[in-house]
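Q: Here's a chain of 425 amino acids. Please give me its 3D structure as tokens.
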Amino acid sequence: MTPIETKQEQERAILAGVHTGSGDPLKDTTEESIEELARLAETAGAETVGTLVQNRPSPENATYLGEGKLEELRMACQSLDATLVIFDSELSPIQIKNLEKELGIRVIDRSMLILDIFARHALSREGKIQVELAQLKYMLPRLTGIGTQLSRLGAGIGTRGPGETRLETDRRHIRRRIHHLQEELSEVKKHRDLLRVGRKKEQAVTVALAGYTNAGKSTLLNILTGADVLSEDKLFATLDPTVRGLSLEDGRRIMLVDTVGFIRKLPHHLIEAFKSTLEEISLADVILHVADGANPECAAQIAVVNSILEELGAGAKPVILAINKCDATPDDIDIPMASGKFEKIVRISAKTGAHLDELCAAISDVAPDKKQAVTLKIPYADGSVLSALHENVPVLEETYEADGTKITVMLNAREYQTYKQYTTE
């Protein structure tokens, strides 16, 4: 008997939100945040068939939208044959319950949508644990408010993921599962800590790539290191952290760490669940902040990333701002230079490779243990010293003289103190 393939129909989504006019474009619903929500919906596999934004000082407590707009949304759902409504802000359990009752179709919010995308893109054991943990923590207080979804888990956006079969269980079981996942994550964190210790022993400098989602971090990692990390024009294409090596001209070994992209209104519980991964940023020696210079919202996205870096406790780290996609960026793009948060600012194109030499020079200047050329005279009787130099540091020039070997090498401050007695100056 030939198996019959069934294909899930693409969901038809209406995007909705409330513009409060609060003056904070990173938290309010704006034209830009709705456009971003549409891209998130596309990444999750939905087709956006309509949008509805209400202007009011604050959302309605019970239904988020006012009575008139709610009726308008209900009519739009019917006329556009929508199967899903996605709200731009986080909804309370009672709001979800009331909205589904009024609209007759599934309702999710931005947080649920992002969790769904993360569930799709988590590949490693750690990533899957973190996604399930975030899903369960999000769902736990909402068990009484999402009755429509709980009967149809696995049937659409906002319901996928490693924890989907467990979300129908009672609160006590979910709390047990959360505790178990936290213990698993603790074990994974111990392994990650051991890898970090190993990198420190190798005296490798860690540079964490951070930035808004889809800014081009993975493309930059690939071109700098020859890696083959997945690089797509999609939001959150990279979820699991990737570490690749890069050697600077002075011989220093740099470990580049690619991390999950940030986004406005990133759910706090998601940051909490991914703390072990995001620690790579807070513990790095340098942060390489990659920004999409071709995006009209570039300045706002930089502000989002700066805000999250502060939340992660990485606000005091040295930061290099790499304005990516300079091949498609006007030279007069308005970047907030006055913030004083950046050690260096470099325009690059990860796609074409333009100005990557300037970026590497910036990394070399900002990263610790910078090396400088030093000329030494090693007596022939100290042959072991000469061997150690050849083995451990870059050698620029070497000549043999009557009283010893004259050698020019690249040394950092610590290495200089070790070989200071052999300097010729």
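Q: Can you summarize the key feature?
A: The first helix runs from residue 31 to 43.
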